[in-house]
């Protein structure tokens, strides 16, 4: 944290450039592949490890904000045998269309689970207050027009002592690992340019604009959360935080 900045100033600071919805529409059929490429094939494993930290109980109600293709729903199905109610919310119809096709498979695997999707904005959720035991937001916060409003809405719909799992792309703390990752990102960006995959190039630049763990924690504390745990995945490329709704 810059010594001249207050915690409130950090919480309200501008975010990275948002990803245009048109880009998500274009990439929806290949979105899971792009995530796999960007995380060097480790995205499914890290999601499973991350959702395990939620310790979901029997019949837990989970909201996945900016759910995209609902890979978090797949991770929950892989980790938990007890029934879970999973709701995916996203602004993009094409991404949710991919999610719905995925739900058909997940319902066969976990017939006691309830899978639903709906169009909606993270900044104005169409759910009553205190509706969910857990809320998840994966690779999404800095793509939103108003991250502070999205965090406020997350706190509103979460039940008392509920858990908020926030997963973000990041740069490693180690200078050596940062250098290695930057080289890999340049290679990925070059391949993406040849393949005309603009979305991949955009996401690699988002990683390089990471402003650190303290920035994320302060923003969430400002919205009424208390940090419960923080983990690094994939050599520091991904950070996963679990926050609790403050009393």
UniProtKB/TrEMBL annotation:
SUPFAM superfamilies for the chain: S-adenosyl-L-methionine-dependent methyltransferases (SSF53335)
Organism: Nocardia asteroides NBRC 15531
Top-level taxon of origin: Bacteria
Record keywords, A-Z: Methyltransferase, Transferase
Entries under CDD domains matching the protein: AdoMet_MTases
Pfam families registered for this protein in UniProt: Ubie_methyltran
Keyword flag Glycoprotein: no
Signal peptide region: none
Record keyword Methyltransferase present: yes
One example GO MF annotation: methyltransferase activity
GO biological process, one term: methylation
Record's protein name: Menaquinone biosynthesis methyltransferase MenH
């Amino acid at each position: 944290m810059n010594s001249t900045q207050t915690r409130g100033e950090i919480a309200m600071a501008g975010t990275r450039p948002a990803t245009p919805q048109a880009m998500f529409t274009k990439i929806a059929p290949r979105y899971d592949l792009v995530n796999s490429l960007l995380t060097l094939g480790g995205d499914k494993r890290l999601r499973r490890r991350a959702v395990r930290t939620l310790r979901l109980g029997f019949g837990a109600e989970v909201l996945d904000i900016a759910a995209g293709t609902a890979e978090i729903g797949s991770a929950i199905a892989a980790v938990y045998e007890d029934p879970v109610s999973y709701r995916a919310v996203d602004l993009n119809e094409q991404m949710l269309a991919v999610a719905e096709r995925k739900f058909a498979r997940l319902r066969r695997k976990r017939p006691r689970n309830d899978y639903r999707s709906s169009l909606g904005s993270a900044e104005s959720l169409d759910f009553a207050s205190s509706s969910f035991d857990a809320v998840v937001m994966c690779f999404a916060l800095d793509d939103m027009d108003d991250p502070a409003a999205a965090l406020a809405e997350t706190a509103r719909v979460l039940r008392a002592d509920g858990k908020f799992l926030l997963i973000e792309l990041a740069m490693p703390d180690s200078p050596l690992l940062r250098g290695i990752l930057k080289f890999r990102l340049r290679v990925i960006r070059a391949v993406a340019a040849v393949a005309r995959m603009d979305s991949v190039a955009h996401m690699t630049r988002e990683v390089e604009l990471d402003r650190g763990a303290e920035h994320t924690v302060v923003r969430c504390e400002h919205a009424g959360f208390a940090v419960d745990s923080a983990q690094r995945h994939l050599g520091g490329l991904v950070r996963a935080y679990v926050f609790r709704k403050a009393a």
